[in-house]
């Protein structure tokens, strides 16, 4: 009987296992056993025998196939254990005797069955006691299981993600249908894997080498050369997979041998082919990562002949790239996505020191140095900035850095500003900018001074000349914050091998050299100078409208011209005269010659030259650059003086004159080069035979000698094979100098010959002499490659010594490109030459006749309606502009500002006539935006910008204020607007355009007196929609019933006088606000207007009584009130 009762017991246990939560390594079994011990009722109870029929019912009830579930490790499956328990663990603790439970229905049986899984406090309360009750062998077994578990999974937390995999494994085991005996025995420990390194989880020599480099460069994504691939390891592989859309093979992501990854054997990895390295490196850099390339710095043949033939290849970090320092064989980084303006490619170093004040009175001293490694331009500046950090913002918007180096800690305001401007992918620079921080010590200033002095003193020793000494003197007298930044920048660029950009001291320029008008950040944004305000792309900006350049370096120069309008009348006149001459001569042979020259210049010469200077240029690119420069220089070979150029403008003549001066220099270098080999990037034949170095000739002779020996060896090989004529060599699968022997003649092959490959009919061999000679030839080849690279680097250094004259020629070419671009704009219909009035004899004046908006003209399908206006000192200094919403007020003031800007760039303007004195700045306050980064509300931003304008504006500035005061209550807003207008015209006395919807401000403006403020409005007509008589009108169309039922036609013309209504309801209707809402708004508007009129009428009546009675002096006031009514 015993065996029969045990079989169901086993099945029942297996069924319970199916319901219980599964874990790994036998923890479930241990957990179940402790629970069952806590729950068992007194032993040897007669209940257990009576419960057997229920088990049989259960088995019969489960009609599915009888699967055996593999039990977790360590679970006791012996029959003895079943007997010891005395009771199946399937039943709930404290179950009633069978005698009492017999009358119960099947439902109660089912509840007792599922009750096994109900929560019981017994196990929790007595947990510690249970542990003490367990025998020592059980405890020991549990400890062993726990150790195995930790060894396999690393940490209990990692059990969560492994659980599902374990379930799958167990399910698979069930289907294998293993016998019952397998369950009872614990499976044997896994056998050690072959290959000691992996079995003991040791790192390979190559991985150790990688980790050594990685620990020194934890912030860098390393691309490691391994054979014929470049590979990423660990976390770098995860980043590469995400950014490059390549496969990441799972493995260890961490570099610190963390226990959580102890079960993993090797690093996660991803790989890319060798020839795709520049493409993928560029994409990683563009995504904002710092990328390092680790190369094998020895070749296979030289390693074979060297001492370390059994060690891994020597690898070193050869290149490090970031956004600001990416200069490589494949050209510059194309920054800026589809939605952003391209950043300038500048690397900007900034440091600041708080000087005085707290809160809104805070002042900081700031120093900046910005370097554009791709062109060699260096900008420096030092300035004091206030609470709004407007000066920093202005410089950042002008320079558009793609990378920041921050020295020391910035104040909270500056840090937030930089994070805000650089942190988002839709920022003002068009792309996410990289930020790197450098600590600042207390003695930084002294250290920086000695570091910069040492750096330039070493350079001066190498090339002593008078100019260099003068420039060194200038650099050593730079302000302290700039010196700190310069020192930090030299140290930073040393890592990228670009520190010698600072040798080009001719390119040092101060940002705020006052020969340029400085457009602040708000003005650049409001006037859409570099990018439009809608989608922040270049299309629809002023730069887009002017950019008709044909070369990349010309486009960059034009961008600088647009952002820095001139303040020097002589230079402006010179530039405008050059544009005028090009327009007048636009179809002549000499202008066509210039245009053909520029159109044929496809190479970005400015960036190619700087790459030659850094020694990063490829052979085909060098040939292309030198040939392009030769073609440019040969356009004017006979020009020896300015008169010979054929141009009267000194600006064009001097630019053309500088081109042929580089001819001899370029030809001397081209004479050394073999053009066919250079085009194919053939390093071995790059130099013409007469120009090759001794090393190159020696190694070439060595290779010829080896090949001669190989040819002679054919006869020896034939003798060994007992043939009369010399054997022929064959090449199969890239393996050279193979000797083919038919399989029938194999008996004559010497045993020393090495079989390489074969087919059914023949075998291919290398003789020992061939093996030796091939190795010798490979060594010569690799030494030759090194000699060719060295000779090429020497050539690049020679050209780099003549960098300045070549760069000057390219700058002249860029100037010609910009002038031709401006002349193409000037040739458009309706563009005229501006007239500059001398500032010494004239008061500030801007007079525009039939002016048009330079950007809207290009983007609108309908013609732009022109305007005529004059601002002059002493009167009218300001225009107070009113008009309906959408009537064209903002467009009008922007057009005035853009025309002034265009004139001071040196361009023609879209107007019948424009005469002006030069303005030293354009200050614009437009639009409503908050600044969450600085915790400032919309109105706070509005008044802060206004405060800055009031402090900065001079009598020669142009100020534009759009709807000042709209961000607060009507009374406060109107009061602030009036006070600001009064201050601008009385105190600052600058030319002002002031837009407002406060009609009563117009009356107050007249009270300012002296004709300082003139009221103008945007004209319109108001027509009753209901049909009954069209109320055609201008300003006066403000009928009592005006509102929702009026059709407003905007005339977009500027007229004198005040528009007494803004017709906001008309715009609401155009915006499709529900009719019901508009009707209610119309009613409320009429009521409020009526109240205002009644109050005004009462006031006028009181005033009339006073005038007729006691106070006749109020007569003017009375007349003004009557006019208003």
Automatic annotation (TrEMBL):
Pfam families: MutS_I, MutS_II, MutS_III, MutS_IV, MutS_V
Record keywords, A-Z: ATP-binding, DNA damage, DNA repair, DNA-binding, Nucleotide-binding, Nucleus
SMART domains assigned to the protein according to its UniProt record, in alphabetical order: MUTSac, MUTSd
Localization in the cell: Nucleus
GO cellular component: nucleus
GO MF terms held by the record: ATP binding; ATP-dependent DNA damage sensor activity; mismatched DNA binding
Basic residues bias (residue ranges): 191-200
Chain residue ranges for the region called Disordered: 1-200
GO biological processes: mismatch repair; mitotic recombination
Superkingdom of origin organism: Eukaryota
Chaperone in keyword set: no
Annotated DNA mismatch repair proteins mutS family domain residues: 957-973
Biased composition (Acidic residues): 125-135, 169-186
Compositionally biased tracts (Polar residues): 13-23
Basic and acidic residues: compositionally biased ranges: 1-12, 67-84, 136-147
Family affiliation: Belongs to the DNA mismatch repair MutS family. MSH3 subfamily.
Described purpose of this protein according to its UniProt entry: Component of the post-replicative DNA mismatch repair system (MMR).
Protein name, UniProt field: DNA mismatch repair protein
Organism, scientific name: Colletotrichum simmondsii
């Amino acid at each position: 009987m015993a065996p029969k009762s045990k079989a169901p017991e086993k099945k029942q246990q297996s069924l319970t296992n199916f319901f219980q939560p599964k874990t790994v390594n036998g923890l479930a079994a241990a957990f179940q056993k402790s629970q069952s011990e806590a729950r068992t009722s007194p032993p040897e109870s007669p209940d257990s025998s009576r419960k057997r029929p229920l088990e049989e019912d259960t088995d019969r009830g489960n009609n599915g196939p009888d699967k055996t579930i593999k039990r977790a490790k360590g679970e006791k499956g012996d029959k003895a254990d079943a007997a010891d328990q005395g009771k199946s663990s399937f039943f709930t603790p404290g179950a009633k005797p069978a005698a009492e439970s017999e009358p119960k229905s099947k439902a109660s049986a089912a509840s007792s069955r599922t009750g096994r899984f109900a929560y019981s406090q017994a196990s929790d309360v007595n947990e510690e006691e249970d542990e003490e009750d367990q025998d020592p062998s059980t405890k020991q077994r549990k400890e062993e299981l726990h150790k195995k578990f930790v060894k396999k999974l690393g940490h209990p937390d990692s059990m969560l993600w492994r659980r599902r995999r374990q379930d799958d494994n167990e399910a698979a085991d069930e289907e294998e249908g293993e016998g019952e005996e397998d369950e009872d025995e614990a499976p044997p420990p896994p056998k050690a894997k072959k290959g000691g390194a992996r079995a003991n989880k040791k790192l390979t020599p190559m991985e150790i080498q990688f980790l050594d480099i990685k620990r020194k460069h934890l912030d860098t994504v390393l691309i490691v050369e391994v054979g014929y691939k470049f590979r990423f390891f660990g976390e770098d592989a995860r980043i590469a997979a995400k950014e490059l859309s390549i496969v990441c093979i799972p493995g260890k992501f961490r570099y610190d041998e963390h226990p959580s990854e102890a079960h993993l054997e090797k690093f996660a990895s991803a790989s890319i082919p060798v020839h795709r390295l520049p493409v993928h490196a560029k994409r990683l850099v563009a995504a904002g990562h710092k990328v390092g390339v680790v190369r094998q710095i020895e070749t296979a043949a030289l390693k074979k002949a060297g001492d370390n033939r059994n060690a891994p290849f020597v690898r070193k970090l050869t290149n490090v790239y970031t956004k600001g320092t990416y200069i490589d064989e494949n050209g510059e980084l194309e920054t800026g996505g589809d939605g952003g303006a391209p950043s300038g490619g500048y690397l900007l170093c900034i440091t600041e020191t708080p000087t005085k004040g707290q809160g809104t009175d805070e002042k900081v001293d700031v120093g900046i140095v910005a370097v554009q490694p791709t062109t060699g331009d260096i900008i420096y500046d030092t300035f004091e900035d206030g609470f709004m950090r407007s000066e920093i913002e202005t410089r950042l918007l002008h320079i558009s850095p793609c990378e920041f180096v921050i020295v020391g800690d910035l104040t909270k305001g500056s840090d937030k500003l930089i994070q805000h401007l650089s942190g988002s992918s839709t920022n003002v620079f068009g792309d996410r900018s990289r930020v790197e921080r450098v600590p600042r010590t207390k003695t930084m200033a002294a250290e920086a001074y000695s570091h910069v002095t040492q750096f330039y003193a070493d350079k001066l020793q190498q090339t002593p000349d008078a100019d260099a000494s003068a420039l060194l003197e200038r650099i050593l007298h730079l302000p302290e914050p700039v010196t700190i930044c310069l020192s930090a920048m030299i140290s930073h660029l040393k890592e990228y091998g670009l520190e010698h950009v600072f040798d080009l001291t001719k390119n040092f320029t101060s940002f705020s050299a006052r020969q340029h008008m400085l457009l602040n950040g708000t003005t650049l944004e409001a006037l859409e100078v570099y990018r439009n305000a809608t989608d922040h792309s270049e299309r629809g900006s002023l730069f887009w409208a002017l950019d008709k350049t044909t070369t990349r370096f010309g486009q960059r120069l034009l961008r600088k011209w647009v952002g820095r309008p001139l303040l020097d009348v002589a230079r402006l006149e010179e530039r405008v005269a050059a544009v005028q001459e090009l327009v007048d001569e636009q179809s002549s042979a000499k202008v066509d010659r210039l245009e053909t020259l520029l159109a044929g210049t496809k190479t970005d010469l400015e960036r190619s030259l700087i790459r030659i200077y850094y020694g990063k240029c490829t052979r085909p690119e060098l040939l292309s650059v030198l040939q392009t420069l030769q073609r440019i220089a040969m356009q004017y070979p006979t020009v020896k003086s300015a008169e010979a150029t054929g141009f009267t403008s000194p600006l064009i003549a001097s630019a053309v004159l500088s081109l042929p001066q580089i001819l001899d220099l370029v030809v001397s270098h081209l004479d050394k080069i073999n053009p066919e080999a250079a085009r194919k990037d053939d390093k071995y034949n790059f130099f013409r035979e007469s120009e090759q170095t001794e090393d190159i000739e020696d190694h070439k002779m060595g290779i010829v000698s080896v090949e001669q020996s190989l040819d002679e060896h054919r006869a020896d090989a034939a003798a060994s094979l007992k043939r009369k004529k010399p054997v022929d060599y064959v090449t199969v699968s890239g393996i050279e100098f193979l000797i083919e022997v038919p399989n029938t003649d194999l008996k004559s092959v010497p045993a020393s010959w090495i079989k390489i490959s074969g087919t059914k009919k023949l075998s291919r061999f290398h003789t020992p002499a061939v093996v030796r000679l091939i190795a010798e030839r490979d060594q010569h080849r690799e030494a030759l490659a090194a000699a060719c690279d060295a000779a090429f680097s020497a050539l690049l250094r020679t050209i780099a010594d003549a960098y300045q004259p070549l760069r000057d020629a390219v700058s002249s070419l860029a100037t010609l490109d910009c002038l031709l671009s401006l002349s193409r704009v000037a040739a458009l219909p309706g563009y005229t030459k501006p007239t500059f009035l001398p500032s010494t004899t004239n008061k500030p004046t801007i007079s525009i006749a039939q002016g048009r908006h330079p950007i809207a003209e290009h983007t609108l399908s309908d013609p732009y309606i022109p305007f005529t206006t004059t601002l002059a000192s002493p009167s009218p200094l300001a225009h107070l502009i009113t008009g309906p919403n959408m009537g064209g007020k903002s467009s009008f003031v922007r057009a005035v500002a853009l025309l002034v800007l265009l004139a001071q760039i040196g361009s023609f303007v879209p107007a019948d006539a424009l005469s002006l004195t030069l303005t030293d700045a354009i200050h614009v306050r437009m639009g409503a935006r908050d600044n969450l980064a600085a915790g400032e509300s919309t109105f706070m931003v509005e008044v802060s910008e206004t405060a800055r304008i009031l402090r900065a504006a001079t009598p020669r500035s142009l100020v534009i204020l759009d709807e000042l005061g709209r961000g607060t209550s009507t009374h406060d807003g109107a009061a602030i607007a009036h006070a600001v207008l009064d201050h601008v015209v009385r105190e600052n006395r600058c030319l002002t355009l002031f837009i407002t919807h406060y009609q009563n401000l117009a009356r107050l403006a007249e009270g300012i007196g002296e004709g300082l403020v003139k009221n103008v409005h945007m004209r319109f007509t108001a027509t009753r929609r209901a049909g009954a008589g069209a109320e055609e009108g201008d300003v006066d169309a403000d009928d009592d019933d005006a509102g929702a039922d009026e059709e407003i036609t905007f005339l977009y013309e500027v007229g004198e006088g005040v528009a007494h209504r803004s017709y906001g309801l008309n715009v609401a209707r155009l915006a499709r606000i529900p009719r019901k809402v508009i009707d209610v708004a119309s009613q409320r508007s009429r009521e409020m207007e009526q109240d205002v009129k009644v109050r005004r009428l009462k006031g006028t009546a009181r005033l009339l009584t006073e005038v007729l009675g006691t106070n006749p002096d109020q007569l003017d006031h009375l007349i003004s009130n009557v006019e208003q009514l």
